[in-house]
Amino acid sequence: MATSRFRVLFSRILVGLYLLYIFLEPKDFATAGFNEILVDPDKTDPDNDAKFEVLIHDTNDPLTNATISTAGNGDGRRHELCGTDLSFLDPPYGNISTSNMVCSPIWNTFVLRYYERADKVMTIILSAVYTTGWVGIGFSRNGMMVGSSAMVGWFNRKGHARIKQYYLQGAHVSQVIPDKGELPLNNIPPVVALHGAMIYLAFEAKFERPLGRQPIILAFGSRYPTHLRLTKHDDKTAVLFDFSQASVLNIDMSQKKNHGILGIIGWGLILPAGAIVARYLKHEDPLWYYLHAGIQFLGFIIGLAAVVLGIQLYRSMNADIPAHRGIGIFVLVLSILQIMAFFLRPNKDSKYRRYWNWYHHWFGRIALFFGSLNVILGIQAAGAGDEWKIGYGFLLAITLVAVIVLEALSCLRRRDESSLPPTFQMNPI
């Protein structure tokens, strides 16, 4: 009777979670952690000089009061950010009129200017407040740092200007490779210059088609690069910039962090703990069964939450990481099959019970293996720091040590039980 009530309650909870998932499923960019800055021609501009005004902005943006402009004649904050005469730059960058160049504050003191010619050659100029170290802008396919190509500029200790394209092969500084990358630079040399308190990085690239919404990585470091090897950044961000409309979508980086945390807790801690209970506490019947079912149900809920966040990241950032996404879907299917196994569990006396045990045990082991593998792939693809790798490695090590110790104790228990005399003996005749 208790088991029947538990199953009814369990099924109701599953239905409720399914309805909650439908309700929370992302429908637009607002639910995906973006704060959009839309720009439109300034309708109050009497000179019709193609200035832009902010219609909607992120209230947490430090540049909230800044407007976006293509004009050099502005006042206040607009003039400060976008009104600088660029004639100090080497040709052809200094020859472009500021009235023809789109100018957009994009993050902190970073300002992005660009001008696209009819032949699809785009001139890009990034500026930011500069003291020491380096400043960079990266172009990404999916909003991730790993796999992106970046232009990085700096002035060394002797005051010599340096600007290089880098390929971000991995999260470690040794995997940021100079003079590599996929940006289609043309034959015009890129330049880096200091003007007042600002550093300017200027380069030209010929893209196959006009840029639309493009994930951009922005970062800076206060320490000088050594032998062209970049030092670790002091801060970074990722934005989705629409070059066709000069609009900024600020990507909520906390979603990636929460997705990783939920995945590690669900697949790295709770679900393995439930499997350990089922294997090594069978002698505590029926306590082990209820513990196993409850722990695995909790792990499934947390894993489902990680999947929901992963869907949001995929739809909002176009964060298409084929291996990570494919394994995640595969593990989710196995998890659902394991939940179904709970309702299809035959009685101990059933002739199908042995086959059900095979199905449940091996599907569970496969799911745990690929779940752990997917956590590792996610940490690698997201370019997470060493603290994530060390933390998950420590968790894996604790789990493996616990399994080894419990397996040894289980073997000793079985050996002791087999050595005990039978409870009933016949006296020999």
Architecture overview:
- The chain has 429 residues and is α+β, with helices and mostly antiparallel strands.
- The protein folds into two domains: 2-27 and 254-419, Four Helix Bundle (Hemerythrin (Met), subunit A) (Up-down Bundle); 34-251, Immunoglobulin-like.
- 40% of the residues lie in helices and 22% in strands.
- It is built from seven helices and 14 strands.
- The chain has a nine-stranded antiparallel β-sheet with strand order 2-1-14-13-12-6-7-8-9, with no helix packed on it.
- β8 (161-168) and β9 (176-178) form a beta hairpin.
- α3 (254-280) runs parallel beside α7 (386-419) and α4 (287-317) runs antiparallel to α5.
- The radius of gyration is 29 Å and the shape is elongated.
Low-confidence stretches are 17-79
- What's the total count of β strands? 14
Shape: elongated
Average pLDDT value? 76
Number of helices: 7
Structural class determined from secondary elements: alpha+beta
User: Using only CA atoms, what is the Rg?
Assistant: 29 Å
* Main sheet: strand order: 2-1-14-13-12-6-7-8-9
Number of domains: 2
Architecture of the largest domain, CATH level 2? Answer: Sandwich
Q: Give the fraction of residues assigned to helices.
A: 40-55%
Ends distance: 49 Å
- SSE arrangement, N to C: HEEHEEEEEEEEEEEEHHHHH
- Describe the main β-sheet briefly: 9 strands, antiparallel
Q: The CATH topology of the largest domain is what? A: Immunoglobulin-like
Instruction: Indicate the proportion of strand residues.
Output: 15-25%
**CATH class type of the largest domain:** Mainly Beta
Subcellular location: Membrane
Domain Cytochrome b561: 224-415
Organism: Durio zibethinus
Domain DOMON: 108-221
